[in-house]
Amino acid sequence: MIKLTIDHTEVRVPEGTTVLNAARQAGIRIPSLCYLEGVHVVGGCRVCLVEVEGAKALQASCSMPVSEGLRIRTSTPKVRAARRTVMELLLSDHEGDCQTCVRSHDCEFLEEARDLDIRELHFTGAKHHRIIDQSTPALDRDSAKCIMCRRCITVCSDIQATGALWAQDRGFECVAAPAFGQMLDRVACVQCGQCAAVCPTAAITEKDHIERVWAALADPTKHVIVQTAPAIRAGLGECFGMPVGSLVTGKMAAALRRLGFAGVFDTNFTADLTILEEGTELLMRLKAALVDQAPVALPQYTSCCPGWIKFAEHYHEDLLPNLSTAKSPQQMFGALAKTYYAESLGMKAEDLYVVSVMPCTAKKFEAQRPEMNASGCQDVDAVLTTRELGRMITQSGLDFAALPDEPMDQPMGMSSGAADIFANTGGVMEAALRTVWCLVTGQPFPFEKLHVAPIEGLEGVKEIALTIPSALPEWSFLAGQTLRVAVAHGLANAEKLVEQVQSGQKAYHFIEVMACPGGCIGGGGQPRFTTNDVRRERMRAIFAEDEGKPVRMSHENPAMAALYRDFLGAPLGEKSHHLLHTHYQPRGVHH
């Protein structure tokens, strides 16, 4: 432990701690715009300057490690004047349309300017050339609002291993953009939205679907229904000042009903369906390999995350046969809504308008993929992020915190606890293991409270090996086999795992990949700002939702039995194949 003094207060922190984090532990807030927890320490924005006794110049607290006996002052006249000058210089080159900016209510840049009490700007002159990039289905860029904090670059390269954004040009002309200043749709961007999640301004935002949803709700010819992803219930409350990790499932359903949706359903319904389809697909691949001795693509990779799918299409074309053919729960829901549900209402597919609420910007890209039209038209018509739904509820004048708890509508609102944990990294794998174990062995799942602890939590890559002690006659070939599975979140972690598998260092049967750190609870469309502490609280809420359900395994959801009996037939059957499965396409690394 290192002892130092910050603003006349003695502080003890572990060796290696930065001055910025030491101050935060002491309850002293130092402003910062470029810093990202555990990742980004370039000291580039210079807003976090502090005075160090004995030093000739002010120091960037985010990149300066503590040392024994250090004496720090965080709010001397010299420090305050320097921070104000830095902020004024940044503001002088910023497009200041705060009255109409989508980030005006949660703009870190504006908040820091207010905290420094900046009321006028003393610097005028040329500004960056403005480039508006609306080329992708999921993300919009406005270069005039970029302050070159480089957070987006760090996330894109270090966390997501894609490098779609980089510092282009030099000096005053420097801007965060795709290579050679291209539009975002011309590079290998996976649309995950982590750049938008960490951007302190509105330089990168999600493609706004709010107005198209309002228009659909006002159209008397449309029957507008909504599905809500598992992670939304543990994040939406933050949009209204509720504590991080607040479970708001019932209030969310009530709000959506009051917004005018004719059906309020749950993506969890098709998360359970995904487990049955994807789990059966895994068992069929294992049977082909072990019984038929046939060449088969193993390990099988999950296909729920559109950011991961697009990453594989760009960078690992050889892996496409290994990806599960099962669509994501969002797209399964859209296909069923416009067939199974539409038929129950006596409607045509085109009469329904399906809205998704997702923690993910890549879902906007996924919804418009040409493969996603099993119903004969686009299966999912619009995708709102958690943040966008928060804005819609605010626009409607609803007092969210005061709303009663209401249930989801049926038949597509019933789900198991296993579906809830899709929100967390490791959740899809845990849900699959619960069902596969029980279907194969006929025995209870052998983990306390059904939780597979080794694949939970925020470690970048997790794994477990399960030996199947005995099996029912249909699956007798699995008796005594050891099932090896792995989980990765954050595409840089996934890339390392893929390299280990392809080099022969590691061998698995089933691998879950989620593009965003923490899984969907840390998605690019979730309320800002998502730190590891925030991720843990949201994950805790999701596990609580799971544990509170009367049914906690996907195959025990009675709605699944009815769906297969009345409509689909059987997992991997002809109708399931048409509606619930898809294919992927090589994209190369340049577009």
Any overview of this molecule?
It is found in: Membrane. Its cofactor is [2Fe-2S] cluster; [4Fe-4S] cluster. One of its GO terms (molecular function) is NADH dehydrogenase (ubiquinone) activity. Keywords: 2Fe-2S, 4Fe-4S, Iron, Iron-sulfur, Membrane, Metal-binding, NAD, Repeat, Translocase. InterPro entries: 2Fe-2S_ferredoxin-like_sf, 2Fe-2S_ferredoxin-type, 4Fe4S_Fe-S-bd, 4Fe4S_Fe_S_CS, Cytosolic_Fe-S_CAF, Fe_hydrogenase, Fe_hydrogenase_lsu_C, Fe_hydrogenase_ssu. This protein has 591 residues and is an alpha/beta fold. It has a domain of 90 residues: Ubiquitin-like (UB roll). It is 33% helix and 13% strand. The chain is built from 18 helices and 18 strands. The strands form 5 sheets. Strands 2-1-5-3-4 form a 5-stranded mixed β-sheet, with helices on both faces. Strand 1 and strand 2 form a beta hairpin. Helix 8 packs across helix 10 and helix 8 crosses helix 14. It is globular and about 80 Å long. The model has no long low-confidence stretch (mean pLDDT 95).
Give a nutshell description of this structure.
The chain is α/β, with parallel strands linked by helices and 591 residues long. It has 18 helices and 18 strands.
What characteristic shape results from the CA principal axes? Answer: globular
State the distance separating the first and last CA atoms: 49 Å
Any idea of the CATH class of the domain at 2-91?
A: Alpha Beta
What fraction of residues sit in β-strands? 5-15%
Number of strands: 18
Q: Sheet bearing the most strands, described?
A: 5 strands, mixed
Class computed from helices, strands and strand pairing: alpha/beta
CATH fold field value of the domain at 2-91: Ubiquitin-like (UB roll)
Kindly report the spatial arrangement of strands forming the biggest sheet. Answer: 2-1-5-3-4
Average pLDDT works out at 95
The CATH architecture of the domain at 2-91 can be named as Roll
The total count of helices amounts to: 18
What is the CA-atom radius of gyration, in angstroms?
25 Å
Helical content (DSSP H or I, runs of 4+)? 25-40%
Poorly predicted ranges: none
Organism: Candidatus Geothrix odensensis
Keywords: 2Fe-2S, 4Fe-4S, Iron, Iron-sulfur, Membrane, Metal-binding, NAD, Repeat, Translocase
Domain 4Fe-4S His(Cys)3-ligated-type: 78-117
GO cellular component, one term: membrane
